[in-house]
Amino acid sequence: MQHNDVRIEVLPQSVVEKIAAGEVIDRPASVLKELIENSIDAEATKIDIVIEDSGFSLLQVSDNGIGMSRENLSKSLLAHATSKIRSMEDLFAVSTMGFRGEALASVAAVSRLTIASSTLHDGLGQVVTCQGGAPKPPQPVSHVRGTSVACRDLFFNVPARKKFMKSRKSERIALLRLVEQLAIPFPAIHFTAVFEGKKVFEVPAADTLVARISQVAGSNFAATLTRAQGSTPGMEATLFFPLSDDGGLRPRYQYLYVNLRRVDSESVMYAVREAFAKLVRRDYRPSYFCFIDVDPDQIDVNVHPTKQKIKFEKERELFGFIHGIVSRALGAALQTSSAHSPSMPPISNTAHSIEADLFERTTKPYEEIRATGPGSLVEEENSVGLSDHTVLPFPTNVGDPEKDLDSPPDDRIQLAHDHAEQWSLISCYQVHETYILAPIKNGILLIDQHAAHERILFEQALTDLEVGKATSQQLLFPVILQLSATEKAVVESAGAFFQSFGFDMQDFGGTTISVSAIPAFMKNSDAERSARDMIHYLLEEKSVGAFPDPRKRFAAAFACGAAIKAGQKLSQEEMNGLLNSLFSTHTPYTCPHGRPTVVRISLDELSRRFLR
Ligand code: ADP
Ligand code: MG
Q1: In terms of C-beta distances under 8 Å and separation of at least 24 residues, what long-range contacts does 329-332 make, across chains too?
Q2: Which among 260, 319, 307 is positioned nearest to 99, based on CA atoms?
Q3: What is the per-residue pLDDT for 250?
Q4: Labelling 155: which of 55, 84, 416, 571 has CA 20 to 30 A away?
Q5: Contact status, residue 171 vs residue 52, Cβ threshold 8 Å
Q6: 3-state secondary structure of 80
Q7: Ligand 1 atom 23: the closest Cα is on which residue?
Q8: What pTM does this model have?
Q9: Does residue 147 line the site of ligand 1, with CB under 6 A?
Q10: Does 82 sit in the ligand 1 pocket, CB within 6 Å?
Q11: Ligand 1 proximity of 590 Cβ (cutoff 6 Å)
């Protein structure tokens, strides 16, 4: 080795800038976020967005905010130039969206940037351009009060980054979703978005948060929302969640805003989920919108480069606080619904008061609890080891789970071969409307009905994609689905896949679609739920990571959305049919995501447990 050659050199400024820019600006969506946030900080009441080529050729944001003077305009592109903080103390009391003064400089380093702005209503302004280097001096231009920023040819001087970008389709969906997320907490701002020459989103100024949610998510959804509110010293929270059976496994929304900034917090998510878990199925995932106002000194917004995560001073208290607010609101809502209030549809089929429920659940015999209806089944705290009350983190699969699981351990294979022919003869029992219990020669099998059906449908879907079109049934009355702009974009980008599975979906104006045919095996009543589940599966960022191959990803989405759910009652024939199909699949022991479908308990193990 030639150690003599090693020499430390300070990188040229242009390279340093690009490295720094890469931390903040890693995709078109991060540029758009910074530009919209700047417009919000500038007190705009109208923000217009234009996107071309998924943001790679053009990302433009125009606002009618306070604008910039000639002097500010030339400074705005400098690194760490900001009008929003002045000192270290300010850093801990930030109320604006941006504050580091690095966004525009970072965007300028990796694109061709043009900013035109005016502080006056006289139609005169200044424009500055920057081509990945030093900005040119501002020039006069005609511009109404406000600012227009156009970012062209993003990453033109960073070829490596461009290569690693996700597909144009998923980037477009990410951009649209970002616009919706940013628009929600600012109902007073009128937003429009034109993507590839087509207006895909418009929300005029609205009076309330619910009105804005209604504009984004549809009036049917907004009508099911209930409001909950609470405060504790230094913190105030308002939540909206639907009291209808919307969510299931994949909620439409789980949005948290802290001081109007969209962030993620596991404490809030688990607090809401746990509050619901006392009343409905444990695996139910409610949608919610949560707005928290907190003293800036109780949080640290400076822990993450894109400000997506924040740290709460008192994470535990936050959990208890949110949990309390949601539990009280749920209790009140359910009490109202037992008095047949039309505005609040009950979660369970048989509405009854939360107190009675909590009180009786340890004393009522199991059969009685069961008889109160499927949705209201309250599980015993320490019932059969199947319903584990501790919340387990979702298993994260690296790469394609299908690959590693093609060959199950030998004894499992044995088990399938012994019984493949005989499933129709076995009496099965359904447990908690979630699991199937089947006696086998050497013990018992427990099958997760949803996971098992997912496996079956996943393999079926892959075959359907090969063939082109599955058998579908025409609906007598088409199902009309109110979607958000993002959801509609998903349906459009996946149109061919939906069709291969047997769906017939048509544009119904605005962001609404009509479904006139569904896969042959599906029940009419499942059409909406299944379609929504598929859309939300595809919207989850982790689905891309789990299945880089789009065919498998869509097959997994289909399997997940169309599979029988936990909580669905099955007849003896249905259970036998399910087991038959499961054990004729290629990989019966795991669902497409790698979770087990079957648990076997051997007679030996049972003997051991009973100390025989
Ligand atoms: P930050 O938002 O963190 O201050 P930026 O680099 O995003 O940093 O912006 C730098 C400065 O440029 C801002 O502080 C603000 O004064 C000005 N600016 C940027 N965008 C706008 C806009 N749309 N309207 C008015 N001023 C703007
Ligand atoms: Mg900014």
Answers
A1: 329/226, 329/227, 329/228, 329/239, 330/243, 330/275, 330/276, 330/278, 330/279, 330/354, 331/355
A2: 307
A3: 78
A4: 84
A5: no
A6: coil
A7: 39
A8: 0.79
A9: yes
A10: yes
A11: no
Ligand 1 centroid–CA 371 distance in Å is: 61
User: Does the C-beta of 566 come closer than 6 Å to ligand 1?
Assistant: no
CA 508 to chain centre: 24
Which CATH fold topology does 209-382 show? Answer: Ribosomal Protein S5; domain 2 (3.30.230)
CA distance 192 to 176: 11
Q: Sign of dihedral through CA atoms 87, 117, 58, 194?
A: positive
Token reading at 239: 């939540």
Q: For 496, how many CA atoms within 13 A lie in the half-sphere containing its CB?
A: 7
Task: Tell me which of 382-391, 416-425, 439-448, 474-483 is least confident.
Answer: 382-391
Region(s) of the chain under CATH 3.30.230.10: 209-382
Comparison of pLDDT for 413 and 102, the residue scoring more:
102
Rounded-to-integer distance, Cα 433 and Cα 455, Å: 18
Helix (H, G, I), strand (E, B) or coil at 512: strand
Could you give the CA distance from residue 84 to residue 91 in angstroms, rounded to a whole number?
Answer: 9
Segments of the chain assigned to CATH 3.30.565.10: 13-203
Helix 485-493 to helix 168-183 angle (10° resolution) is: 170
Which tens digit of pLDDT belongs to each residue from 28-64?
999 999 999 999 999 999 999 999 999 999 999 999 9
Computed on alpha carbons and rounded to an integer, the radius of gyration of the chain in Å comes to 27
- Asked if residue 143 has its Cβ within 6 Å of ligand 1, the reply is no
DSSP string, 354-405: HHHHHHHTTTS-HHHHHHT-STTPPPPTT-STTS--SPPPPPPPPS-HHHHT
Where do we find the tokens 């309390």?
A: 324
Closest CA to 19 of 94, 59, 82, 79: 79
Using CA atoms, how far apart are residues 377 and 367, in angstroms rounded to an integer?
10
pLDDT digit string, tens, across residues 147-199: 999 999 998 888 776 665 667 888 999 999 999 999 999 999 999 999 999 99
Q: Which fold has domain 410-601?
A: Ribosomal Protein S8; Chain: A, domain 1 (3.30.1370)
β strands within 143-207, DSSP E: 146-152, 190-195, 198-203
* Ligand 1 atom 13 nearest Cα: 82
Rounded Cα distance between 77 and 493, Å, is 36
Scan for tokens 């109110």, then name that residue.
482
Which part of the chain has CATH 3.30.1370.100?
Answer: 410-601
Q: Please tell me the distance from the alpha carbon of residue 61 to that of residue 59, in angstroms, as a whole number.
A: 7
Instruction: Return the CATH architecture of domain 13-203.
Output: 2-Layer Sandwich (3.30)
User: CB–CB of 475/466 below 8 Å?
Assistant: no
Of the listed ligands, the closest to the CA of 63 is 1
In this structure, the residue with its CA closest to atom 20 of ligand 1 is 38
Average pLDDT, rounded, for the chain = 80
Q: Which of 34, 40, 104 to mutate to test the pocket of ligand 1 (most atoms within 8 A of CB)?
A: 104
Average pLDDT over residues 96-108: 79
Q: Is the CB of 38 under 6 A from ligand 1?
A: yes
The runs of H, that is alpha helices, within 306-371 are: 315-338, 354-360, 366-371
Please give the number of the atom of ligand 1 that sits closest to the Cα of 37: 2
39 lines ligand 1 (CB under 6 A): yes
